[in-house]
Structure formats: C-alpha cells, structure tokens
Amino acid sequence: MSRPPLISRRLLLTGFWLAGTAIARAQVKRGTDQGIGGTGITRGDDHGIGGTGIVGVIQRFGSIYVNGERVTYASDVPVRIDGEEASPKALRIGQLARVVATRQADGTLVTRNIAIASEVSGPIEQVKGNELTVLGQKIVASSKESKLRAGTPVAVYGLRRTDGVIVASLVEPRKEATERVTGLVERGPDGLHIGGLKLSGVDPLLVGQRVQIEGSASQGAMQAARTRIDDFSDLVGASRLSIEAYVQRAGSSLQLGSGLVARDSSRFGPVAGEARMVVNGVFDRSRGLQVESTQAIGQGPGAPRPGGGNPGRSPGGSIMHPDRGTPSPGNSQPGGAAAPGSNPGSNPGSAPTGPSGPSGPGGMGSPGGPTGPGGGMGGGGFGGPGGGMGGGRR
C-alpha cells in the first residue's frame, strides 16, 4: 500500500489547528459576554470572584462618584429610580445609588446597572425649621428644603442615624409620590412601626428587619399593600460590599443606622458614640457581612452630638440574615466599661479627627473641605448632608 502524500497530512493538521483556534476564540467571546446572575457584569473582569456592591450617595459626576470611588457606565446604562425605569439624565447628586461594579485591567470600576432608592416618599406632613416629617419619619434637611411646604409630595434620599432620624442628602419634589418607606420594623406598645409611622397588615415576623413598605397612609398609620425585605439580595454578583452609613458599636459588631448589623471582630468601628463611615467588607459563608475596613468621613449637617445614637433602640439583624440578633451596646460593663475581651483602644480603620486631621478644621470633613459642607461629601457638596449608603439607617 502506498504512503499518503505528505502535503495532505500537513493540510489535515493545519485544519485541526484552525478549528481548535476558532473554538477557543468562541469560548473566550462567550465567556466575556455572559453576565453574572443576569447582571451583565463579566466574570473575566473580576477574576471570577464577583463584583463589589456599592451603596452610597452620588457625590459628583464625571461618571458617578459613590463612597469615593469613580464608577463608569455606558451612556445607555439601565437606570431604575424607586423601581421605575429612568434615563441616566435623571441621576442627581444626593441620590442614593446601588450598583455592582467590577474593576477592569486598567483599574477603573464599571457598572452596567444603576438603581436609585429613596428612604421615604410621600407628602410632607410638617415643616419645622430644618426638620421635615414625611410618613412619620423625622428628617434633617438643608435650609433649601426647609422652604418646602406641608402637603408637597417628595422623595427623600439620605442616611438614617442610629436613632432613626434621616439625614437628607436630597429632598426631591415629585408630582405624584408613591407612599413608601424603608426602615427597621420595630414593635411598640401600640403595635409595629417604622419611626413614627404605625403599620397595619405587616407580618410580625418582620420585626427587627429592614423592610420596604408601600401602601396607603392616613393619620399616622399605613395600611401595607406591598412589603419587601431590603437585604442587599438585589446586588447579584457582588462578593464584597462598600456601604456608607452612620455606625455605632454593638458588642463585637457594628450597628448601621439602616438597622443592619455587620460583624467587626477587628474593632474597626467607633469605640463609643456614633460615626459616619464607609464600611467595607466581604460576605462570609452564611452571607453575613464581615468587616474588613472602615473609613471615617465628615459628619455633615444633622449629625448627632458626640456620644449620640440610641442605645435603647432595638438592634436589627445581621446583613442577609436580619433575624439573627447581635449583641447590643447593653452588653458592655456597667459604667461604660468595655465588655470582657473587647478592645477599647484605638480604631485602626478610623481617620484622625484632630484639628489638622481629615475631620478637623480645613481637613477632609470640615466646611470647605472634600467631605465637609460645601466640599466633597458634606452638605451641599460632594454627597450632601449625611450622604451615603444604608441611607442608606442600608
């Protein structure tokens, strides 16, 4: 039998090589086109570990800046404001944004979806100085918002302090504002409530959880039509979180003003009282949040006095598992001493607050500074008063 010509073998091997290359290229293309959990965020951009869920007030534009990070997006990025489709042109400084962002090879963060969430929306019930009341929620606003009249429908964006008061970063008038509130469901002598709003038609099992409730309000009470637990489960594809919030220590954890709790065994948070911080962490196996670091930022208008907060307020549950209680500040020793095993020492994650530090006069958190009033993240500036995540109290 004669041997096949050599040229035919070479052609055959070349054909196999070309076919293999085409398959490999197709696989690579398919891998970069598939999103994680339908988000459109690619695994290749973040080495297969998921993106970072960023929740905070929009501080400025040029893309959007949230929690000090520049997050880029396409001109036609899908935007939802309080669940309704909107244009990127509807984004405003002071709105509370929730995005999942992935870091590219050049270091930039990219998101392919932007969600905007107000803390409460409905008619203004009362205006007293720079304080507003909307659906029973006490709100600290700027002098501009204090000129609004009772009865005006508004959406309020901002952070809750740990006493439940909302420090507004933006109060946006709306022609028609769906009556909606998001906050920690608590039980009182007269039943369930969020802030000063009594709740009807809400499952008692939701006590201690942060819940978004829509319904019809009248005379200080709301009949719930829809309820949804607000637990970051919408941040699909995120393996990390960056959250701006008012924070106080609750035993070995951090209690966020939103009502959520994050584990903080390394003692990054404030030793006493309340502080406005960006909390960075990773999800553990139980989908709780383990704090990795914190960054102290300027308090801004409406901040509580030193030693503030609300020790008597019932703590919420842990992130993603709100029904799992955590130690409360009451676990400390009488007289304010730290509980056994705690570390009342310095805060490795806190920024200095002395006269020349980031929160001192002329520093990062002072009037005119990057995070002070009129500056980067303070009132009227980068993020407005109390701007950030968790509102968001998340």
Strand order of the largest sheet: 1-2-3-7-6
Choose one word for the global shape: globular
Detail the poorly predicted runs.
Answer: 21-49, 318-394
**In DSSP terms, counting alpha (H) and pi (I) runs of 4 or more, how many helices?**
1
What's the β-strand tally? 24
Structural class per helix/strand content? mainly beta
Helix content: under 10%
What share of the residues does DSSP label as strand, in percent?
35-45%
Question: Can you give the mean pLDDT?
Answer: 73
Alpha carbon gyration radius: 24 Å
The helix/strand series, from N terminus to C terminus, equals: HEEEEEEEEEEEEEEEEEEEEEEEE
| Major pleated sheet | 5 strands, mixed, barrel
- Cα(first) to Cα(last) distance is 79 Å
How would the blueprint of this fold be written?
Elements lengths: L5 H28 L17 E11 L2 E3 L2 E4 L6 E3 L2 E3 L9 E8 L5 E3 L2 E3 L3 E9 L2 E4 L2 E4 L12 E8 L5 E8 L6 E5 L1 E3 L2 E4 L2 E4 L9 E9 L2 E9 L8 E13 L2 E4 L4 E3 L10 E10 L5 E8 L98
Parallel strand pairs: 1-20, 3-7, 4-8, 11-13, 17-19
Antiparallel strand pairs: 1-2, 1-6, 2-3, 4-5, 6-7, 6-8, 9-10, 9-12, 9-14, 10-11, 12-13, 14-18, 15-16, 16-17, 18-19, 20-21, 20-23, 21-22, 23-24
Give an overview in words.
This protein is mainly beta and 394 residues long. The chain is built from 1 helix and 24 strands. A 5-stranded mixed β-barrel has the order 1-2-3-7-6. Strands 9-10-11-13-12 form a 5-stranded mixed β-barrel.
